[in-house]
Design goal:
Blueprint (H helix, E strand, L loop, with lengths): L1 H9 L2 H17 L61 H22 L4 H4 L3 H6 L6 H22 L11 H11 L2 H14 L4 E7 L5 E7 L10 E7 L6 H4 L3 H8 L5 H15 L1
Antiparallel strand pairs: 1-2, 1-3
Helix pairs in contact: 3-6, 8-10
Bound molecules: fe (ii) ion (FE2).
């Protein structure tokens, strides 16, 4: 009886069909899983790197999105009227400083590079970072005038009629962590500016170790020549302050904080962090 039942069961086509489907599914389930990139989801999209990342030597300093051109070098317009920074710098000084002094650095750089088409295609930053690659007969001219062009281009940007007051953003925290307080930082910065004998600049930089540091430089040297990133700098050449302050450089250094553009300083501090990474 049981044998007859089994034989009848095996003769049912529907059972053969269902058994086949079951077997196929079992075989598929036992296959090793193949992971494809299409099946991976990530929380944030990662851009595909199609070009070689810019090296530190190629990264811009004067502007966020481009290096300072020497093909030819051009005087950037002041981002505000000559009399906009009266809280610290008078209109006559601003006009002479920008229209005459900065213009002369630009002109002298272009004259030095006139017969050097290869150098004209390099940025000002690139030349200053590798001065030994500049022909000896124009090296000092490029150093002084390329530096003068770079330094002043930064200088106009880090001042603003709406500037002054306490630092804001991440740079405020970093200044407190590094120097103890904003007042302690200002004191140290002003002292470094006063200590620079003759002409030069005082800077807040991020050094190659990634730390904030106050340095001063002679003449028109820029901290990128030593591998540091200039976050903010004050011009302590007499041409920057003599009309109003005469020999009182310390008074100029104190008043200058009334026009510091902390938004731009923060942007540059952020760029300096990326420069290190
Ligand atoms: Fe200057």
């Amino acid at each position: 009886m049981l044998k007859t039942w089994k034989i009848n069961l095996l003769r049912q086509p529907i059972l053969w069909f269902l058994s086949g489907i079951l077997l196929v599914n079992l075989l598929i389930a036992c296959q090793p899983q193949q992971v494809t990139t299409d099946s991976i989801t990530t929380p944030t999209a990662t851009p595909i790197q199609t070009t070689t990342p810019a090296t530190v030597q190629e990264r811009p300093v004067a502007y966020p999105d481009r290096q300072l051109s020497a093909n030819p070098a051009q005087l950037p317009p002041l981002p505000y009227p000559n009399n906009a920074l009266e809280k610290a710098i008078d209109a006559n000084t601003m006009q002479l400083h920008h229209d005459r002094h900065h213009q002369s650095y630009v002109d002298n750089l272009n004259n030095a590079l006139k017969q050097q088409p290869d150098l004209q295609s390099r940025s000002v930053e690139a030349m200053l970072r590798d001065l030994n690659s500049i022909p000896e007969d124009i090296r000092t001219t490029v150093r002084n005038n390329g530096g003068g062009h770079l330094n002043h281009t930064i200088f106009w940007q880090i001042m603003s009629p709406q500037g002054g007051g306490q630092p804001t953003g991440e740079i405020a925290q970093e200044i407190n962590q590094t120097f103890g307080s904003f007042d302690a930082f200002k004191k140290q910065f002003n002292e470094a500016g006063s200590d620079r004998f003759g002409s030069g600049w005082v800077w807040l930089v991020r050094n190659p170790q990634g730390q904030l540091q106050i340095v001063n430089t002679a003449n028109q040297d820029n901290p990128i020549m030593e591998g540091s990133y200039p976050i903010m700098g004050n011009d302590v050449w007499e041409h920057a302050y003599y009309l109003r302050y005469q020999n009182r450089r310390a008074d100029y250094l104190n008043n200058w904080w009334n026009v510091v553009n902390w938004n731009e300083v923060n942007r540059r501090a952020q760029a300096s962090r990326q420069q290190q990474s």
